[in-house]
Amino acid sequence: MATKIIILTGPTGVGKTRQGLAIARLLGSPVINCDSRQIYKELRIGVARPDPAELALATHYFIASHSIHRPYSAGDYEREAWDLVMQLAPSHPYLLMVGGSGLYIDAFVKGIDQMPLSNPELRRELMLMAEDPEGLEVLRARLKQLDPVTYARIDLANKRRVMRAVEVCLLSGKPYHSFLSHTPRERPFEMELLVMDMPRKELYDRIDKRVIAMMEEGLEEEARGLYPYRKLPALQTVGYRELFDHFDGKYPLEEAVRLIQRNTRRYAKRQLTYWRDIPRKENHPLLRPDPSL
User: Fold this and answer.
1) Per-residue DSSP letters for 230-274?
2) Minimal CA–CA distance to 96: which of 28, 49, 29, 26?
C-alpha cells in the first residue's frame, strides 16, 4: 500500500502534542495516539491529555477511548491500532502516530510474540513481594539480573510492570524484551520514526513547570476522585501514585509535588534511553514548529 506511517515519539514534556498537530495539519492526517495512559477516559490532567481546542484541530483516535476498569495491554493496542490503520489507509496517503510509549510503538511496528501463560502460584508470590518495599527492591534486582535491557527501559516504580517482567523471565527462561521483537511481523506500509529531543536541562525545566501547571489545573482533585481505584494497573502512574501516598498520610502535599517532578524527570530519562539508538533528525522538515499553534 502507498500509505506512509509517521511515528512521532520522545520523552514526556518535550512537546509531542503540539508538534503532532503541526504535522497532522501539514499532511492532512488524523492523529493516532500511542500513549498508554491517554487512552483512558478517566485520566485527563495527570496524563496531559490534549485539551478540547487541540483535539478539534485534527481527528484523534485512542484518546479517552478505554476505561481504567478494563485491563488493556500492548497486545490489545497492536491489534486495535492495526485494525484502525487498515480502515484509514485507503483514504490517507499519510497516517500519524503520536506518543511516548515505547512498548506500544514496538508492539505496533514489530508485533508481540505470545507470552507464556501465567502461573497463579508464582503470580501470587510475586505480587506479595511487589507490595512490600523490600520485596519490590528484590524484584528489581532480579529483573536486572534476568533482563538488563528491560530493567533499563521500564518504569521501575511501576510494581505491576516489574512483577510481570520478572514473571515472564522465570516462566519462559527468556528475557522479557525478547517477546517484543523476537519475530517481527511483516508490515505492509513504509514507516518512519521521529524522536523529539531537547537539551536535558531545558526538558527538565519544562517538566517541573508542567507539574506545577497540572496542580493548578486540578490534578489533586482528579487524583482524589480516582483514589478508590488506586490499585488498578492503569493508576500505577507517575502523578497519581504520589498523590495517593499523600492521601494515605505518607508525606505532605509539597513533597508529593516534588516527587511527581522528580519521578517524571526520571521517566523522561528512561524514555530517552529507550530510543537512544534511533538517530535524531532535528532538521527534518516535519519537526519544524508551526507558529500558528
Assistant:
1) TTSGGG-STTTHHHHHHHTTSS-HHHHHHHHHHHHHHHHHHHHHH
2) 29
The domains located in the chain, with CATH, are 4-113+180-197+277-287 (3.40.50.300), 120-179 (1.10.20.140), 200-273 (1.10.287.890)
CA distance 287 to 38: 22
Angle among Cα 192, 11, 273 to the nearest 5 degrees reads: 85
271 vs 116, higher pLDDT:
271
Instruction: Say if CB 3 and CB 30 are below 8 A apart.
Output: no
Q: Which of 111, 76, 114, 108 is nearest to 95 (CA)?
A: 108
Residues 6+ apart with CB under 8 A from 219: 45, 46, 239, 243
List strands edge to edge, sheet with 190-195: 60-61, 31-33, 94-98, 4-9, 190-195
Q: Is residue 249 scored above 80 in pLDDT? A: yes
Cite the DSSP H helix spans in the chain: 16-27, 52-55, 74-88, 102-110, 120-131, 133-146, 148-153, 159-172, 178-181, 200-217, 219-226, 241-247, 253-274
- CB-based contact 194:12 (threshold 8 Å): no
Average pLDDT estimate for 76-99 = 96
Q: Would you call 280 exposed, middle or buried from its count of C-beta atoms within 10 A (0-12, 13-18, 19+)?
A: middle
What's the whole-number mean pLDDT along residues 260-277?
A: 92
* Residues 261 and 141: beta-carbon distance below 8 Å: no
Residue 99 in grid coordinates: 506518543
φ, ψ for residue 231, nearest 5 deg:
-85, -10
Burial class (CB in 10 A: 0-12, 13-18, 19+), 17: buried
